[in-house]
TrEMBL record:
<dbReference type="InterPro" id="IPR009057">
    <property type="entry name" value="Homeodomain-like_sf"/>
</dbReference>
<feature type="domain" description="HTH tetR-type">
    <location>
        <begin position="1"/>
        <end position="55"/>
    </location>
</feature>
<dbReference type="InterPro" id="IPR001647">
    <property type="entry name" value="HTH_TetR"/>
</dbReference>
<dbReference type="GO" id="GO:0003700">
    <property type="term" value="F:DNA-binding transcription factor activity"/>
</dbReference>
<dbReference type="GO" id="GO:0000976">
    <property type="term" value="F:transcription cis-regulatory region binding"/>
</dbReference>
<dbReference type="Pfam" id="PF00440">
    <property type="entry name" value="TetR_N"/>
</dbReference>
<feature type="DNA-binding region" description="H-T-H motif">
    <location>
        <begin position="18"/>
        <end position="37"/>
    </location>
</feature>
<protein>
    <submittedName>
        <fullName>Bacterial regulatory s, tetR family protein</fullName>
    </submittedName>
</protein>
<dbReference type="InterPro" id="IPR050109">
    <property type="entry name" value="HTH-type_TetR-like_transc_reg"/>
</dbReference>
<keyword id="KW-0238">DNA-binding</keyword>
């Protein structure tokens, strides 16, 4: 059902999807969809939770503390843009406009985004325990926000390939953090 819901939200947008639509697309009855998700917001958030958890798990798996800082940034950026390139619907669930969601659901979506920031913070401080904690916290937020905006920009620039985006991403952050991270 999550796959069907994800696809419908991506194709039609949140406002144009109902739980009945999700049930039909998933080949189940409406009562099953209602029992599983309770509300359309619940279906949207379940899709977003799965997308965020999959991304966080992949980020942790791809992290390699034996690599130089620039290569670590490149690997993380490549994963982010790979998600956007191969699963734009999943990226849109997390980073698309949440304005159509009720306040409570927007808060939960914000918490999911914060989960990505916390994963980034954990990776930075694990591999670089001497980095100032406040700097690492700010860096994690800055990286997340900038990556989100760069992702939106890339969606409007089909002339740029993924490697261009990774290179831009790395250059932006490497210059700011190299003095803190390369001193290991």
């Amino acid at each position: 059902m999550l796959d069907a819901a994800e696809q419908l939200f991506f194709e039609r947008g949140f406002a144009a999807v109902s739980l009945s639509d999700i049930a039909q697309a998933a080949g189940v009855t409406k009562p099953i969809a209602y029992r599983h998700f309770k509300t359309k917001d619940g279906a949207y958030l379940a899709c977003a939770r799965r997308a965020q958890a999959d991304f966080a798990q992949a980020l942790v798996q791809r992290a390699d503390p034996t690599q130089a800082v620039r290569e670590q940034f490149a690997a993380a950026a490549d994963l982010f843009y790979e998600l956007l390139e191969t699963h734009p619907e999943r990226w849109e669930l997390i980073y698309g406009s949440a304005a159509v969601l009720p306040a409570e659901s927007r808060d939960e979506l914000s918490a999911l985004r914060l989960g990505n920031i916390e994963t980034t913070y954990a990776l930075i401080t694990k591999d670089h325990p001497d980095i100032p904690k406040l700097f690492a916290e700010g860096l994690s937020h800055a990286m997340s926000g900038a990556a989100e905006r760069l992702g939106h920009w890339w969606r409007s620039r089909p002339d740029l390939d993924r490697q261009h985006m990774v290179d831009i991403h790395v250059e932006i952050f490497y210059a700011a953090v190299a003095p803190y991270l390369d001193s290991r």
